[in-house]
């Protein structure tokens, strides 16, 4: 068997944490031949509940699970971490302005980034799930100058998976026949799910849909507002599907994306497609040799350009706001 991989999960006592930890421990994150050491990071009030989850993990007798440690100090929680899933975040509460939200999350993601810089393993890979995910990732990244920038990513895989299913349903195709879909920009209501390069049953998806009104009035808003629709229906935000997307993201990052397809992830921009360098924005990506690469050379039409630009403009605003707050 391989050497164990240390996986740190923050917000471990939350609802995504509960949906995520059992799948990590069962081998779905890294593969069925990789033993896992779990480190759970919570705030002090969350530690007891995390201990309860750890008891249940014990009770599964997962063959790959080598240890579980619970911490409330990031300097211990990220010690030796090879993979860090930053799920715990400060939610927006009633009457909270965006500036307050960014500042509150800066108070979480800056010290976590510093701790990752100091104590994580050299090959650390970070996925930020907690919202606002792209900008939280930017804050953590800025606090970790010794870690290569491309190790900090933000999750847009849930949006990607949501878009695949909506498109598959529209064209009455199995989801496995949908390829090369892209989420661009911010993980927020401004995100742009792009079907112009997507393929369904090997055919161009936009041509197969052939209905710009459906794209504009149904598909894009359904994907972008899916989180709110789930809260409305379930009385709680998406958790199992978010955990599933986090598993997909890290699994593909470590093991590679399939030939002939790509996925979407929030990664540090190198300036591709007019997205300012250094922003953490969602792109079409493949993973090769353990690194995300932006798919190059796609032609961006007018319809896509205005929507990508609008979401990137929001990312720039968020970046400028956290810069003003001294968080990056
Ligand atoms: P939750 O409220 O059930 O759990 C959050 C947990 O984080 C709590 O147990 C809390 O004690 C913990 N926490 C708070 N601050 C922490 C800190 N500084 N260190 C360690 N733990 C801390 O929330 P849920 O439903 O699990 O969602 C977590 C985050 O994921 C939210 O920000 C949510 O908006 C986001 N999310 C992101 C998605 C995406 O696609 N990127 C999709 C769905 C949710």
TrEMBL record:
<dbReference type="GO" id="GO:0006108">
    <property type="term" value="P:malate metabolic process"/>
</dbReference>
<feature type="domain" description="Lactate/malate dehydrogenase N-terminal">
    <location>
        <begin position="6"/>
        <end position="144"/>
    </location>
</feature>
<feature type="binding site">
    <location>
        <position position="105"/>
    </location>
    <ligand>
        <name>NAD(+)</name>
    </ligand>
</feature>
<dbReference type="GO" id="GO:0006099">
    <property type="term" value="P:tricarboxylic acid cycle"/>
</dbReference>
<dbReference type="InterPro" id="IPR022383">
    <property type="entry name" value="Lactate/malate_DH_C"/>
</dbReference>
<protein>
    <recommendedName>
        <fullName>Malate dehydrogenase</fullName>
        <ecNumber>1.1.1.37</ecNumber>
    </recommendedName>
</protein>
<comment type="similarity">
    <text>Belongs to the LDH/MDH superfamily. MDH type 2 family.</text>
</comment>
<feature type="binding site">
    <location>
        <position position="162"/>
    </location>
    <ligand>
        <name>substrate</name>
    </ligand>
</feature>
<dbReference type="InterPro" id="IPR015955">
    <property type="entry name" value="Lactate_DH/Glyco_Ohase_4_C"/>
</dbReference>
<feature type="domain" description="Lactate/malate dehydrogenase C-terminal">
    <location>
        <begin position="156"/>
        <end position="322"/>
    </location>
</feature>
<comment type="function">
    <text>Catalyzes the reversible oxidation of malate to oxaloacetate.</text>
</comment>
<feature type="active site" description="Proton acceptor">
    <location>
        <position position="187"/>
    </location>
</feature>
<keyword id="KW-0816">Tricarboxylic acid cycle</keyword>
<dbReference type="Pfam" id="PF00056">
    <property type="entry name" value="Ldh_1_N"/>
</dbReference>
<feature type="binding site">
    <location>
        <position position="131"/>
    </location>
    <ligand>
        <name>substrate</name>
    </ligand>
</feature>
<feature type="binding site">
    <location>
        <position position="112"/>
    </location>
    <ligand>
        <name>NAD(+)</name>
    </ligand>
</feature>
<feature type="binding site">
    <location>
        <begin position="129"/>
        <end position="131"/>
    </location>
    <ligand>
        <name>NAD(+)</name>
    </ligand>
</feature>
<dbReference type="InterPro" id="IPR001557">
    <property type="entry name" value="L-lactate/malate_DH"/>
</dbReference>
<dbReference type="InterPro" id="IPR001252">
    <property type="entry name" value="Malate_DH_AS"/>
</dbReference>
<dbReference type="InterPro" id="IPR001236">
    <property type="entry name" value="Lactate/malate_DH_N"/>
</dbReference>
<feature type="binding site">
    <location>
        <position position="92"/>
    </location>
    <ligand>
        <name>substrate</name>
    </ligand>
</feature>
<dbReference type="InterPro" id="IPR010945">
    <property type="entry name" value="Malate_DH_type2"/>
</dbReference>
<keyword id="KW-0560">Oxidoreductase</keyword>
<dbReference type="InterPro" id="IPR036291">
    <property type="entry name" value="NAD(P)-bd_dom_sf"/>
</dbReference>
<dbReference type="GO" id="GO:0030060">
    <property type="term" value="F:L-malate dehydrogenase (NAD+) activity"/>
</dbReference>
<keyword id="KW-0520">NAD</keyword>
<feature type="binding site">
    <location>
        <position position="98"/>
    </location>
    <ligand>
        <name>substrate</name>
    </ligand>
</feature>
<dbReference type="Pfam" id="PF02866">
    <property type="entry name" value="Ldh_1_C"/>
</dbReference>
<feature type="binding site">
    <location>
        <begin position="11"/>
        <end position="17"/>
    </location>
    <ligand>
        <name>NAD(+)</name>
    </ligand>
</feature>
